[in-house]
Amino acid sequence: MRKTFHICLSSPDEVLFRCEADLIRGFNGLALASLETDSRLLADGFPTTHFHSLLQSDCPAEVITQTRYSYSRYFNARYKRKGRLAEKRGFILEVDGYYHTLAALNYVNRQGLHHGISPTPFGYRHCSANAFFSKQLGKAAPSELMPAPQRYKYLPKGIHLPASYRMDTSGLLLREDILDIAQVEAIYVTPRNYIYQMNKIGDELSMKSQQEESSSSPLITLELIEKGTPGMNLEQLLRNENGKHDPAWISDLELCQIIDKTCLPKYCNVESIYETRLSQRSFLYDLLWKNLWRTHRKRTTDAQLRRCLCLK
Fold first, then answer.
1. pLDDT single digits (tens) 201-226
2. Which of 61, 76, 139, 181 sits in a 20 to 30 Å window from 284, CA-based?
3. What is the spatial order of strands in the sheet that 50-57 belongs to?
4. 253, 235, 252: which is closest to 244 by C-alpha?
5. Phi and psi dihedrals of 287, rounded to 5?
């Protein structure tokens, strides 16, 4: 019998997903790993340095391994990189009980919010927040889908998808086909409660409900869900959860695109940050640190610059 787990795979020193195509390939890899292991995905969230998923499985470690292996092959080929990508084992937490599961779903679905990527959970494309109660909330499925003969450009070689799996024109497998939508919607019960859960902050009432529940799981908190993720700053995550989103802070995706599309060809004459020397990365660090606000009206941090430039 499958148990419910929260899994997380992080990259401590570098960005896992440098562009939209990487995030698409990352989710597709997770979807295929769940298919191969006969697991059921309930929710997912893909920031740039790690990914989360709540799933039901007999082998959560194998889901992580298969996802990392598939994505590492893609990433290393795309960016001319070598070696293992991300941490070796990842974080696995068994989740038991209704209120514990509800709390875990909330935190995974709110990835875009508490990482400061979007002012609401629904504003971030690369998580499952928009997949539930989509019809009731007026979120129609894509009108155009990828023709079947072209889908395999966005998948590892030799993969045969079930006929029910659709793909949008960007190459992303539709979460509505991958996730166990019916089970998650049954946990939230109504669209109105789902909206409430997506907008509320983890509070004492949630903690009390978990404490009163007969469960072997620890209390599901934002700190526990984000345990071990790169640069985890609980105070900042909580500020983001309160909706204090500042668009002046540049996202990892934006910064990586400036590096990859502008800085590398102009200053280094290479296609990938992994082809540069340490001295070139240090030069780009100084350049961006001094000029990013003037050229793009965006702020950054030392830690963000270092992970996007792979400066350990």
1. 767 678 889 999 998 899 999 999 99
2. 76
3. 40-45, 50-57, 3-10, 91-94
4. 235
5. -60, -50
Closest CA to 111 of 64, 48, 173: 48
DSSP codes of every residue in 39-63: -EEEEEE--SSEEEEEEEES-HHHH
Cα distance between residue 63 and residue 76, in whole Å:
20
Place of tokens 């509505």: 176
> Which pairing describes strands 40-45 and 50-57: parallel, antiparallel, or unpaired?
antiparallel
Strands (E), the chain: 3-10, 40-45, 50-57, 91-94
How far apart are alpha carbons 120 and 244 in whole angstroms? 10
**How far apart, in whole angstroms, are the C-alpha atoms of residue 269 and residue 258?**
14
- Exposure b/e, 36-55, CB count within 10 A at least 16 = b: ebebbbbbbbbbbbbbbbbb
φ/ψ of 190, rounded to 5, equals -130, 155
Q: Which two tokens stand for residue 94?
A: 């068994």
Quick one: tokens of 49? 């340095």
What tokens appear for 270 in the block? Answer: 């290479």
Q: Write out pLDDT tens, residues 126-171.
A: 999 999 999 999 988 788 999 988 888 888 888 888 888 999 999 9
The rounded distance, in Å, linking the Cα atoms of 47 and 18 is 10
The neighbouring-strand residues paired with 40 are 56
Q: How far apart, in whole angstroms, are the C-alpha atoms of residue 136 and residue 32? A: 28
CATH number of 3-241: 3.30.70.1290
45: left (phi over 0), alpha (psi -120 to 50) or beta: beta
Which residue from 261, 255, 206 is spatially nearest to 48, judged by alpha carbons? 255
pTM of the model: 0.94
Extents of the domains making up the chain: 3-241, 252-309
Residue 219's φ and ψ, nearest 5 degrees, are -60, 130
Question: Strand 3-10 to strand 50-57: parallel, antiparallel, or no bridges (unpaired)?
Answer: antiparallel
- Quick one: tokens of 51? 């990914």
How confident is the model over 96-108, as pLDDT tens digits?
999 999 999 999 9
